Amino acid sequence: MKINREDVRHIATLSRLQVSEEDLDTFSSQLSTIVEYIEQLNRLDAGGVEPTSHVLPLQNVMRDDLPSPSLPREEVLRNTPDSTGKFYRVPKIIE
Amino acid sequence: MKLNELTIAEVRRLLDNREVRPREVLDDVYGRIDEVEDRIKAYITVTRENGYAMAADAEQAILGNRASLLTGIPVAVKDNLCTKGVLTTCASKILHNFIPPYESTATGKLKEQRYLLVGKTNLDEFAMGSSTENSRFHTTRNPWDVERVPGGSSGGSAAAVAAGECIAALGSDTGGSIRQPASLCGVVGLKPTYGRVSRYGLVAYASSLDQIGPLTKTVEDSAILLSAIAGHDPFDSTSAPVEVPDFARVLGQEIKGMRIGVPKEYFTGGMDREVADAVYAAIRKLESLGAMPVEVSLPHTGYAVATYYILATSEASSNLARYDGVKYGFRAEGKDLMEMYRNTRAQGFGAEVKRRIMLGTYALSSGYYEAYYKKGQQARTLIRQDFEKAFEQVDVIVTPTSPGAAFRIGEKATDPLQMYLSDIFTISANLAGVPAISVPCGFTAGGLPVGLQIIGKHFDEEAILKVAYAYEQSTEWHARRPSL
Questions:
Q1: Is the whole-model pTM more than 0.95?
Q2: Model ipTM?
Q3: Angle at CA B377, nearest 5°, toward B376 and B381?
């Protein structure tokens, strides 16, 4: 299946990526090549085969719900590009 | 001989006999880095000050007879493992200034043993690539030929080991990222069983495939380092609650009578003549040691790369959603929140990361999920079952690690699909979750290393280490070092 410029634009929006007009062409051709390669899976008869999401027989690993100390706030905020000192600061969300 | 050229086991003996001090080992390691690093570029960050502080601590432990196997051993760590207080970039602009407030479990275990952190090694951005050319900072050079790639994504770790810029290193392997660079740089690289090593603090790429493992000069060192990092961890619910043996214990045991599977689908052409010759010669060598080669079939091998690039990119598109310019790392300007997100991610991620995020987003998007993601998961089941069936007949499976020796810088950089196909022999082990090791098994006429891959059953690292050690000890390949 061909991934055209409009497809790339749509996927980029879903992926929260700004893509320039000239990059639309590059990604369109590269992603098309890759998707065409991947489509060889269409030749595979997988009817009735259980999908594998995980190779280990581990499910619902539970632990006791006990409170334990968290990282100090200032350490957590040390890596943020912008904070108020107590909270992350982001551009305005509500008009 | 300089101390930086030695193995973990050799340095251990010298340290325990008080013949050398940890800081003297570091002197030689950093001396070597000063000598060759401008040509190799294996590291993103060299942590000299930190290393010497750790050496002082290690020395106290040795003098107090409290030394463990890794005490005072200089180890390089791939820059996608979080090291508390030490820059961890994933070779990405989006994490260019990230200083983790916590330590990964794997490096934390080495810290408990008082290892010495030499520095953080280069990789393809977020471990996505097979050459380190996708690093946002620089491309690492292959110590055997600096015009060629070291492989990837753990290319910095592999090159650092090969060039003697550390004693050993840690890497991560999602589709071959430890084994392929180990093969291309002529060192030993091991991807443990999925679940063997905790991934807590490993920056996630594809969580159902990622594993941390050692890159070392010898099989013995691989066993030592694996023993140190393995084990269940309450901080990683996918780490398996199984016992960790002392992996070095099996080294030297006979391989006589072991059944060595040779999958016919891997030997159908598509690999360089010289690689095929070296691997066939290695199989004959194993036979001469008493092992029995048996032809096996892994019929769904041809679907592995396609399956991988659906599942790995789908998981990546989800894992990398966290890079939003808010909590850490780089942020670009934008007139509102959405524009800030889109600009941050557009400027912060490199082209390959964007391609994989978009491919994964596409595979998971409405209308395509059944055709791609679910089909990929079903193909994964069939690939896993291929191994289960083959392992009913054999103890281990041997293949080439990579279809070719190290390629030239730039040779595959403009063709993503060609680059993906360089992982064609390593990807299946990640999809099946089984352990695999790459050991040097020869050189091309041009002097480039070739690797032999040995794949084992779930949680049977002992079998692959045993076979790898027997092979290594009966050949001279591992003793060769690049002339730099």
A1: yes
A2: 0.96
A3: 115
Quote the CA–CA distance of B393 and B110 in Å, as a whole number: 37
Residues of A with CB below 8 A from B235's CB?
none
Whether residue B153 has a cis bond before it, omega within 30° of 0: yes
Rounded-to-5 percentages of helix, strand, coil across chain B: 45, 15, 40
Instruction: Give the A:B interface size as CB pairs under 8 Å.
Output: 164
Q: According to the 3-state scheme, what is the secondary structure of B354-381?
A: HHHHHHHHHHHCCCCCHHHHHHHHHHHH
Mutation site, B82, B193, B347, B359, interface A, largest A CB count within 10 A: B359
What are the pLDDT digits (tens) for B24-61?
999 999 999 999 999 999 999 999 999 999 999 999 99
pLDDT tens per residue, range B267-320: 887 789 999 999 999 999 999 999 999 999 999 999 999 999 999 999 999 999
Considering the segment(s) B3-252 as one domain, its CATH architecture is Alpha-Beta Complex (3.90)
Cα B30 to Cα B166: distance, rounded to the nearest angstrom? 8
Which of B177, B198, B239, B402 is the catalytic position?
B177
Q: Domains along chain A? A: 5-42 (1.10.20)
